[in-house]
C-alpha cells in the first residue's frame, strides 16, 4: 500500500477513479467480533474523485460514475493507497462492477459488460432422496438475470448492447464474479457476460 500524507489532493487521470474504501465488517450478524485476519477484504466504497474520461477513436467516453456514488469493484483491481488517514483505491472505470443505489444487493446496477444474477437455490436432496449437508451441496451455476449493464465499448467508443435480457435463465462458470446476499435471503452474483455459458429455456 502506498502512503500519501504530505499531499492534499489526488486527481485521477483518464478513465480512472479514486474510491474511499469502506471498512471491513468487524462484527458478524450475530454481534461476534471478527479478528482482522478473518475479515473479508471489502470490495466497495465511495467515489471521491474521477478522471476526465478517455477518447476512443474520435469519441469522448465519460466516466460511468459520479463523485459520491457507492460502487462495487473487481477483487484485485487498482492500486491501494492511504490518504488523509483512510484507505483509498485508484482504479479504472472498467474495473467498476456496479453501482449501489440502495443497500440491497438485488438493487445493484451493473456497469459495462456486467450482469446481475439471482442464484438458483442449491439442491437440498440427491436424486435418490438423501439430504445434503451444507458442505456437500453443489454450488449452483444457474440463475436468473435481474439486471444488465449498458454493454462494453466497441472500437469507436460506442456502447455495444448485451445479448442477455432481464428474466433470462442462464448457466454460468463456477467460482466467478462477486457474491452478494440480498435482503430477501437469496444469493446474487455480479459477473461479466463472457462468464455466462448458456441461456436455458
From TrEMBL:
Superkingdom, natural source:
Eukaryota
Task: Tell me one GO molecular function of this protein.
Answer: protein-folding chaperone binding
One GO CC annotation, please?
mitochondrion
Keyword Chaperone among UniProt keywords: yes
SUPFAM superfamilies given in the database record: GroES-like (SSF50129)
Alphabetically sorted, this entry's keywords are:
Chaperone
For the keyword Chaperone, the answer is yes
Output the NCBIfam families linked to this UniProt entry: PRK00364.2-2
Entry similarity comment = Belongs to the GroES chaperonin family.
Name recorded for this polypeptide: 20 kDa chaperonin, chloroplastic
Amino acid at each position: 500500500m502506498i502512503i500519501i500524507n504530505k499531499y492534499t489532493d489526488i486527481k485521477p487521470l483518464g478513465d480512472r477513479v479514486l474510491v474511499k474504501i469502506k471498512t471491513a465488517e468487524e462484527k458478524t450478524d450475530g454481534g461476534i467480533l471478527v479478528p482482522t485476519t478473518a475479515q473479508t477484504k471489502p470490495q466497495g466504497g465511495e467515489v471521491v474523485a474521477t478522471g476526465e474520461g478517455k477518447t476512443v477513436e474520435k469519441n469522448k467516453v465519460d466516466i460511468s460514475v459520479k463523485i459520491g456514488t457507492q460502487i462495487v469493484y473487481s477483487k484485485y483491481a487498482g492500486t491501494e493507497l492511504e490518504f488523509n488517514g483512510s484507505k483509498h483505491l485508484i482504479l479504472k472505470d472498467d474495473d467498476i462492477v456496479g453501482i449501489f443505489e440502495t443497500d440491497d444487493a438485488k438493487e445493484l446496477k451493473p456497469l459495462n459488460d456486467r450482469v446481475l444474477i439471482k442464484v438458483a437455490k442449491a439442491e437440498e436432496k440427491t436424486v435418490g432422496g438423501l439430504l445434503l449437508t451444507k458442505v456437500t451441496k453443489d454450488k449452483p451455476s444457474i440463475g436468473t438475470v435481474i439486471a444488465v449493464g449498458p454493454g462494453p465499448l466497441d472500437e469507436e467508443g460506442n456502447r455495444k448492447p448485451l445479448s442477455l435480457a432481464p428474466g433470462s435463465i442462464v448457466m454460468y462458470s463456477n467460482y466467478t464474479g462477486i457474491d452478494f446476499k440480498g435482503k430477501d435471503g437469496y444469493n446474487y452474483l455480479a459477473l461479466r457476460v463472457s462468464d455466462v455459458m448458456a441461456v436455458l429455456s
